[in-house]
């Protein structure tokens, strides 16, 4: 029987990831929960590692944890219980700590980002039905903002309809610019170039999601893509050229700077 929840950990050999892993293992006990780790020396992007973890997972629900963060003592048991609800996504509250700054508390849910109000859109830290989570592939090119190019297309798709809210702080996001790996200037600049003015998302008649590939040179080296064609990546990481008329545009992912997720839908 498959586990009800898969907890996915992209890890770096240079970090003390074993401490968090051991905490999770101790919390699992006899619960139907699996913990999967993808470990490397820092040469792979986090997006690439998240895709590998998604391919390996067997749980009905999936969630990610970062190897430099921490979780509350009831993290695993609360999420496992929430997954029994059958909701599309299981959310909770998060504590954000940053040295030298006041702690912040964010509440995830089916709403757009209003960070000033402590409200955040459900993202990869929440527990998603795997059948939904698999509808968008992680960008293998990105380490910084790879999460936005995953959860924004998914959240805005209209496929996520129900949320089970846990009224507890379950996750402790421990940010420190001195030890952050992805939030470095070169990766931030690369991500901003990748996003440009925004990345468009499309859907076909069967509910399959396609995310536009920002660099058309992937399939058209040194050429311009015809205006009626777009280059997109599907949930299997396959890149193809599609006619715009065959897909419905529904959303544009913008580089997030603490603002809202802005939805765009056809009438």
Quick structural summary:
This protein has helices at 17-28, 46-56, 75-83, 130-133, 148-156, 185-195; strands at residues 5-12, 33-40, 61-64, 70-71, 89-97, 104-109, 119-121, 127-129, 163-174, 199-203, 209-212, 229-233, 239-243, 248-253.
Task: Jot down its keywords.
Spore Coat Polysaccharide Biosynthesis Protein SpsA, Chain A; five-stranded antiparallel β-sheet; globular
SSE topology sketch:
Layout: E1 5-12, H1 17-28, E2 33-40, H2 46-56, E3 61-64, E4 70-71, H3 75-83, E5 89-97, E6 104-109, E7 119-121, E8 127-129, H4 130-133, H5 148-156, E9 163-174, H6 185-195, E10 199-203, E11 209-212, E12 229-233, E13 239-243, E14 248-253
Parallel strand pairs: 1-2, 1-3, 5-9, 6-7
Antiparallel strand pairs: 3-8, 4-9, 5-6, 5-8, 10-11, 10-14, 11-12, 12-13
Question: Could you characterize what this model shows?
Answer:
The structure is a single chain. This protein is an alpha/beta fold. It has 2 domains: 5-174, Spore Coat Polysaccharide Biosynthesis Protein SpsA, Chain A (Alpha-Beta Complex), CATH 3.90.550.10; 194-253, no CATH class. It is built from 6 helices and 14 strands. The protein has helices at 17-28, 46-56, 75-83, 130-133, 148-156, 185-195; strands at 5-12, 33-40, 61-64, 70-71, 89-97, 104-109, 119-121, 127-129, 163-174, 199-203, 209-212, 229-233, 239-243, 248-253. The chain starts with a strand and ends in a 14-residue tail after the last strand.
Shape: globular
Helix content: 10-25%
| Parts with pLDDT < 50 across at least 5 consecutive residues | 257-267
Which class of the largest domain in CATH terms? Alpha Beta
What's the Cα radius of gyration?
A: 18 Å
Beta-strand percentage range: 25-35%
Q: Helices and strands: which structural class?
A: alpha/beta
On the 0-100 scale, what is the average pLDDT? 88
Q: What profile does the largest beta sheet have?
A: 9 strands, mixed
- Identify the CATH homologous superfamily of the largest domain: Spore Coat Polysaccharide Biosynthesis Protein SpsA, Chain A
Number of domains: 2
Total strands = 14
Q: What CATH architecture of the largest domain do you see? A: Alpha-Beta Complex
Tally of alpha and pi helices: 6
Tell me the span between the first and last alpha carbons. Answer: 43 Å
Helix and strand run: EHEHEEHEEEEHHEHEEEEE
| CATH level 3 topology of the largest domain | Spore Coat Polysaccharide Biosynthesis Protein SpsA, Chain A
């Amino acid at each position: 029987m498959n586990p009800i929840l898969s907890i996915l950990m992209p890890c770096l050999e240079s970090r003390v990831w074993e401490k968090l892993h051991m905490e999770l293992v101790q919390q699992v006990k006899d619960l139907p929960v699996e913990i999967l780790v993808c470990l490397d020396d820092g040469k792979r992007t986090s997006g690439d590692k998240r895709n590998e973890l998604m391919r390996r997972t067997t749980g009905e629900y999936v969630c990610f944890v970062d190897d430099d963060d921490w979780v509350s003592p009831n993290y695993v048991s609360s999420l496992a219980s929430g997954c029994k609800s059958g909701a599309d996504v299981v959310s909770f509250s998060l504590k954000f700590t940053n040295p030298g700054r006041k702690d912040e508390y964010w509440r995830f849910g089916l709403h757009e980002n209003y960070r000033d109000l402590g409200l955040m859109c459900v993202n990869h830290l929440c527990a998603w039905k795997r059948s939904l989570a698999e509808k968008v592939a992680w960008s293998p090119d990105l380490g910084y903002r790879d999460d936005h190019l995953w959860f924004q297309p998914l959240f805005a798709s209209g496929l996520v309809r129900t949320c089970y809210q846990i009224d507890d702080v379950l996750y402790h996001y421990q940010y420190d610019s001195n030890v952050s790996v992805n939030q470095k200037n070169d990766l931030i600049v690369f991500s901003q170039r990748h996003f440009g003015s925004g990345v468009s998302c499309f859907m076909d008649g069967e509910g399959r999601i396609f995310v536009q590939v920002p660099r058309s040179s992937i399939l058209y080296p040194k050429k311009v893509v015809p205006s009626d064609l777009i280059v997109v990546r599907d949930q299997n990481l396959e890149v193809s050229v599609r006619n715009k008329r065959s897909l419905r545009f529904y959303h544009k992912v913008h580089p997030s700077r603490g603002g809202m997720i802005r939805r765009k839908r056809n009438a």
